[in-house]
User: Fold this.
Amino acid sequence: MPAIDVDSISKRFGAVHAVSDLSFSVAAGRVTGFLGPNGAGKSTTLRMLLGLVHPDGGRAGFDGTAYGALAHPSAHVGAVLEEASFHPGRSGRNHLRVLAETGRHPASRVDEVLALVDLDGGAAGRRVKGYSLGMRQRLAIAAALLGDPEVLILDEPANGLDPPGIRWMRDLLRAQAAQGRAVLVSSHVLSEVAASVDDVVVIAAGRLRASGPLETVLGTADGPTTRVRAADRDALLAALSSAGIAVDPEPSGSFLARGTAPEAVGLAAAGHGVALTELVAVARSLEDAFFELTQATT
Amino acid sequence: MSALLRAELLKLRTTRTFLVLAGLAAGLSMILAGLGAGFEDDPTPARLAEIFNSNLSSIFVLILAIVGITGEWRHRTITSSLLAGPDRTRFLASKTLAYAAAGLVMAVVVSAGITVVGFAVLVIRDLPTPQLGDLLEIYARNACVTMLLGALGVGIGAVIRNQAFAIVAIFVAAFVVEPAIAALLPDAGRFAPLTVLPSALTDTPESQSGFDDEVLIAPGLAALAMLAWIGVWFAAGAALLHTRDVD
Assistant:
């Protein structure tokens, strides 16, 4: 059973269909990126998953149980939502003490998670209104980790973090998944997501566009793609054909060999004495895939 | 439930709002008691009772409770509160109990301050002081009112989510609407929860409350009526909290 299961959920705000019949699942032990343009319905989906927003239809839950029905919700799921919520006059440590008390977590966890997010020492005792955006984000992550949860949900967790902070976040997510936790992370920083995630869920206008392992969504699941060009196109085609390499012609005159590495293409051409003028690996970036998948609605 | 209540009490202790409002309530009440004792020339038991009944904690705990519950929305702490404890009725119930407890603490602090100032001025002026039993009765009634208004404030704030509007609304209700209803429609006005019922429960004389004795019902009945008001506002607040999206 998936750690997170979203099944046909929908939500309307007046005339706006924020989320429409959306289904996806998140597996334990993997980091799943939740992607979509602004207004795609990511935050609404996460809030429905966490019981903060009531869906008009469908269901969402954890191991088959809705968030509010979990025996010990904050010990099962830790969440950082896009708008971090703190009382500005309360210190970071006291914010966590309140949440530890509410969630029935040991008080000792407060200092443990503060150390984990590098907020221990003087910063924890200062009032939150004096915190930088990055410090607030670290405090929100500390709150999510209080219950040592099996599932982590993070909405734009890299917001406000500096480059070392972003790297720290990426390492944290990978470490959490390596320990068997399910991690669902939404982000608009596609390069960051591409470096962190195993799976992706792409939505636009509240509807699912793609989901699955990152390689599948990028179209690289069948192996690398190579672009090749030669002055003598017929000789090149014959060489590749004799090596069993299928290619697609491109308007520019080059060929695309899907599922074949440049080395294999180069060897096939050399074997027939064909001089190449171009031989490159073609990488489809997450950004390319994202824009193709969401183009219809943006 | 006890964990939620402890969390709410911790929230109260970890910001300055409670201390500031309790300090204001104590300071203003002590000034009133001091002035009352300082200008009193005919210290009958009834007049002494008025001096030691100068407890303003009830209005301040009402503001505290409204700031507390509406602040959850204003600072968006409602999100983390409901993530840590998703049962919305329990959340509201624990907050209601916490602000009733805050009312008790505030009433005790203010009563202690009034006692020190009132006794000091009366002794310096070589005037008689009230009996301890009479004082304890006054303070117990004030503590009851303050606890009930703390609980009522949470219900009101759960319904009226806008903090500034809620505070203005209770001032208008307390100082304009309720006195007008009490004067024009006494049969209905005697059940007004912010001013008339508290005056009945504390047995505040007309000279101090401004309400005709005939409007004020028996203290026990007043306490029951206030509990009913708390129930109505709590139910309305809980229903809204259940249906609202936290977005």
Observations:
- The mean pLDDT of chain B is 92.
- The longest helix of chain B spans residues 88-124.
